[in-house]
């Protein structure tokens, strides 16, 4: 199996990874950290997908996709922190004023897990941020202390996977997800 990671500009492939089974459903679409809370609450059903379709046509696209051949098997959301709710977060601190990028969601399709796809997504997101001029990239993974994390709540990533990718612990946070603390991990790209 060879995994290729590419920009998330193909909306149908993004839909496969983060869209709902039912077109009218109000699933996240990986928008909850990307857009202001008010807009996130206003976008309902198909309007959420339409918003993501616009993001896929924009430059830069909203993240990266992992492919096994032509099949989309993974997603990672990555964007300038200033364009996300992390820019205004009270729970996840700013380390400094560097215009860093944020990597906040990693999703691997069921049936494709435990094949290294999340590692490929992290590496692809880092390269995506680097190509788009990011001086550094941050992530806010769970520090589960080796405990098992429910797959639906592991979207933030696991600390050890970011450590393997060269990220270093930059700060503790007051954010908790699925009963586990989140930490701020950072990788300098300069």
Itemize the secondary structure elements and their pairings.
Layout: E1 3-7, H1 11-18, H2 37-42, H3 46-57, E2 63-68, E3 71-80, E4 101-108, H4 117-131, E5 136-139, H5 159-164, E6 168-177, E7 180-188
Parallel strand pairs: 4-5
Antiparallel strand pairs: 1-2, 2-3, 3-4, 5-7, 6-7
Protein name: GNAT family N-acetyltransferase
InterPro entries: Acyl_CoA_acyltransferase (IPR016181), GNAT_dom (IPR000182)
Organism: Streptomyces gossypii
What does this structure look like?
- This is GNAT family N-acetyltransferase.
- InterPro entries: Acyl_CoA_acyltransferase (IPR016181), GNAT_dom (IPR000182).
- The chain is α+β, with helices and mostly antiparallel strands and 190 residues long.
- The chain is globular, with a radius of gyration of 15 Å.
Short descriptors:
190 residues; alpha+beta
Quick recap of the structure?
By secondary structure, the protein is α+β, with helices and mostly antiparallel strands.
Mean pLDDT figure: 95
How many angstroms does the end-to-end distance come to? 32 Å
Roughly how many Å is the radius of gyration? 15 Å
Our estimate of the beta-strand percent is 25-35%
Strand/helix succession: EHHHEEEHEHEE
Count of separate DSSP helical elements = 5
Structural class: alpha+beta
Outline, from the CA principal axes? globular
Helix content: 10-25%
Uncertain residue ranges: none
Q: How many strands, what sense, and barrel or not for the largest sheet? A: 7 strands, mixed
Count of distinct strands:
7
Read across the widest sheet, the strand sequence of neighbours is 1-2-3-4-5-7-6
Organism: Streptomyces gossypii
InterPro entries: Acyl_CoA_acyltransferase (IPR016181), GNAT_dom (IPR000182)
Protein name: GNAT family N-acetyltransferase
Pfam families: Acetyltransf_1
């Amino acid at each position: 199996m060879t995994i290729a990671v590419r920009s998330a500009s193909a909306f149908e492939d993004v839909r496969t990874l983060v869209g709902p089974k039912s077109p009218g459903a109000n699933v996240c679409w990986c928008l909850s950290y990307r857009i202001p809370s008010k807009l996130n609450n206003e976008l309902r059903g198909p309007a959420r997908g339409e918003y993501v379709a616009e993001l896929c046509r924009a430059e830069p696209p909203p993240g990266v996709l992992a492919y096994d051949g032509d099949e989309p098997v993974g997603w990672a959301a990555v964007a300038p922190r200033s364009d996300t709710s992390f820019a205004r977060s009270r729970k996840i601190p700013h380390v400094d004023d560097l215009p860093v990028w944020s990597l906040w969601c990693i999703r691997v399709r069921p049936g494709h897990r435990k094949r290294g796809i999340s590692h490929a997504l992290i590496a692809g997101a880092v390269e995506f941020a680097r190509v788009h001029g990011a001086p550094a990239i941050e992530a806010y993974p769970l520090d589960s202390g080796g405990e098992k994390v429910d797959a639906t709540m592991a979207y933030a990533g696991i600390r050890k996977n970011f450590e393997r990718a060269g990220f270093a612990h930059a700060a503790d946070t007051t954010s908790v997800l699925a009963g586990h603390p989140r930490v701020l991990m950072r990788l300098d790209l300069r």
